[in-house]
Design goal:
It is built from 13 helices and 14 strands. The chain is an alpha/beta fold and 338 residues long. The strands form 4 sheets. Strands 2-10-9-6-5-3-4 form a 7-stranded mixed sheet, with helices on one face. Strands 11-14-13 form a 3-stranded antiparallel sheet. It has a two-stranded parallel sheet with strand order 1-12. Helix 10 packs parallel to helix 13. The protein starts with a strand and ends with a helix.
Length: 338
């Protein structure tokens, strides 16, 4: 099955780890701290919120959106209590820029600032995301990035923040992590990367994944993983994603929900919305028969976790593993069930 969220790792990606390479430009930002993974970055940021008493104890409420992977919630749980609904006791908000499309940060800040709620941005799907022309992750307490959600580096992430104390805290936790755990998680990801998702969810593969995810917050960054997604490679991937997304917009110019999305986005996947869920189900069935690992999910059409409106959507791939003829075939399948 062809994954919709990211292309498969190639030998050239792994070979790049052994060769001189420029790092992703984000990593060279003075406000950026490279970390083992995005989940490690989440854990470190919320550890800082706990140590600085924004979160008084593990019962302090952290507002999160639904349907994140449960290991994302697990990265928060040692430091605070993830909740799905706003409450006067919420002390922090974990804002998820879903599929690379930004949340309405102005409205979210209007809710958070008067109450002193700390805002942390989940930018795992928004490596080059922008909100009103401003890079995502730069105007809140911190933005957490996961390179492996965007480029097949398997492992590697970063925390972006203007708060020096937070950066120092994150860097200290990363340096204190285990190199052995880091190598183990990288090895597991490498071994299971081409295994079908259904297989990964059963037996030994599932156990290995569980152990790997559990060790993320306690793993030290593997510096050479940044070289896998070196600047040239990451730029090529974002260029291809942007081109594929623009082609979808061109070929589906009459699809109102698609045209309402930001034209300049670089998506993780394209959430194709439709007012009739049964149409999306038929599209998903045909795309799976064509070999794409997709399905019907939910997208926050309001882009505001404090006032969310989830609508059904179909994942369409935009990653660099597909090209214009593949996009055209996908669009033909979509049109058959409009």
């Amino acid at each position: 099955m062809i994954r919709c969220d990211i292309r498969a790792t190639r030998w050239s990606d792994l070979r790049a780890a052994l060769l001189p390479a420029r790092r992703p430009s984000l990593v060279d930002d003075a406000r950026c701290v490279p970390v083992h993974s995005g989940k490690a970055g989440i854990s470190h940021v919320f550890s800082f919120l706990r140590s600085s008493k924004v979160l008084q104890d593990r019962n302090s409420q952290v507002l999160v959106p639904p349907w994140l992977g449960y290991w994302v919630y697990n990265a928060i749980r040692p430091h605070g209590n993830p909740v799905l609904h706003d409450d006067p006791e919420v002390k922090a908000a974990f804002v998820y820029h879903q599929y690379g499309f930004p949340q309405d940060l102005d409205k979210i800040r209007e809710r958070c600032r008067p109450r002193g709620v700390a805002v942390v941005e989940d930018c795992a799907h928004a490596l080059e995301g922008r909100y009103k022309g401003r890079p995502l992750g730069t105007e809140s307490l911190a933005g957490v990035f996961s390179f492996s959600k965007f480029y097949p580096s398997l492992i590697a992430g970063a925390v972006l923040s203007s708060d020096q104390a937070l950066r120092d805290h994150v860097a200290k936790l990363d340096a204190a992590g285990s190199g052995a755990l880091a190598l183990f998680s990288f090895g597991v990801k490498l071994a299971l990367q081409d295994t079908a998702r259904a297989t990964r969810e059963t037996g030994l593969a599932r156990r290995l994944n569980e152990f790997a995810y559990a060790g993320y917050p306690y793993s030290r960054r593997l510096a050479w993983t940044e070289k896998i997604c070196g600047l040239d490679g990451i730029n090529d991937e974002t260029h291809r994603r942007r081109s594929n997304y623009r082609l979808y917009r061109e070929l589906l110019s009459d699809h109102e929900e698609l045209q309402a999305l930001e034209a300049d986005a670089v998506p993780h996947v394209l959430p194709l919305m439709h007012p009739r869920r049964e149409n999306l189900v038929r599209m998903a069935k045909e795309l799976r028969e064509m070999g794409f690992d997709t399905g019907v999910y939910a997208f926050d059409a309001n882009r505001n976790m404090f006032d969310a409106r989830y609508v059904p959507c179909l994942w369409l791939p935009v990653h660099g593993g597909i090209d214009a003829p593949v996009v055209a075939r996908i669009v033909e399948a979509v049109r058959r069930h409009r």
